[in-house]
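Protein modeling request. Please complete all fields; requests missing the sequence field cannot be processed.
Requester role: graduate student
Desired output: 3D structure, token encoding
Chains: 1
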Amino acid sequence: MKPQVLIVGAGPTGLALARSLANHGVQIRIIEKNSGPGTASRALVVHARILEHYQQLGFSDRLVNKGLPMTALTIREGDKDKAKLNFPDLGEGLSPFPYILSFPQDEHEEILVDELKKVGIEVEWNTELTSFSDNGDTVKATLKKDGCLEERTEFNYLCGCDGAHSTVRKGLGIEFPGGTYDQLFFVADVESEAGGAGMENMYMYMDDEGFISYMPVRNEKMKRIIGIVPKELTNYSNMEYKDISSYIERKIGLKTTKVNWFSTYRVHHRVSEQFIKGRIFIAGDAGHIHSPAGGQGMNTGIGDAINLSWKLAAVIKGKADSSILETYESERIAFARILTSTTDKVFQTIVGRHVRGSLLRKVFMPYVVPFLFGFSTAKKKAFKVVSQTEINYRDSKLSNGTAGKIVAGERLPWIETAHSDNFKPLQSFDWQIHIYGQANKDLIEFAQSHSLKVHEFTWEQKMDSVGFQQDALYLIRPDGYVALANKDQNVSALNEYLTKFKIAPFNLN
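Delivered output (509 residues):
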């Protein structure tokens, strides 16, 4: 069968998009100009919301079993601990993955590539997009294999997941406004003399010269170090780890025995003016780049991929009106702008030498934050923000209604029930109805006639505490967000919603 979607770029965003589209039976091709998956750890953090999506796709356990849940952040000055934040199960009761998972990007990509192979899809390595055109009904593309062999082909849609220097974004002529931070960063994966205080510890060193953070990678002696190159070293050409090793050792007391990887780079903060143009989409770093604060970059790209995948699949399969594709941009570009602004403010405060930055380093981080983390409310709020479980699409045209404390557009709250949990049905990656209580006869009959699965959960008092209203109707999108919330199980309101967007379930599983 002719491929319907071309995905350009086989980083985590492109691979996740390919795997999710394949889950819905969409025929795809995924190309990558490099010869294989990355060989450096690069992004290290996988947050709860992404693990929840991977659970829907059936392979979250592969990452969890190989990754390392981080349980503490130690703030240091030289070899002395100034404060320690303990957060084992930081998101307990909020997600089936209540932690921050450390898992190297190269191993992450290997799992995604393997998951694609399981469904019969091979990444086409050493293959690049050289030109493309949107002809209204299809997208024509010219591909170059191994630097010489050219192929001209066409697809229903093209998705650019090809990074900050995206060929697709540039080819569309879309602006990428933003800026670049003055500071030069360094990143290194090294092996140290000793394992340190514990595998589950992240460390951060801050002073008026900047900051250095480090954490375990793969095993207790391997460390990922990220920091700002001191001003006196910024003019080095072709800087190597040896040029900065004495500075690192003096600051954090870490003696290195082997350097596996080292690089310097500038950090940008940019959001593309558009994520969609006709039949062409961009996702991940092609659409947004920002400060590494909070480890949000890769996770945001994968979130883009999941959001786009089910909408593309629904339109291609005739299960929704094509207008829902517009909501990919409106939902994801709004979050990208907020995230870029937030991480920019956090970064500027951490590295700032003014009074605000000094107070953050000397008072807020070592004294105020540990105090706040003693309260469950503060810990839960921190988890929701960092884990991306707080992302919502309340303003989306796909969101309608309120029931209890839950507003349509919010992620379905996770709750454990007497026999299971309410995320298990989400593994169908399909539209479904949730009733926390009992469904009425009219709703059941309507759902059956429209091939919609109804999941009834026996009412428990704790359901009220997470926001559910007893016996209310919650229509859940394939990606686990609430589309329609109706307190009265109003079948007419449900029918109006489905009719408006011409929605029908996939019913693939």
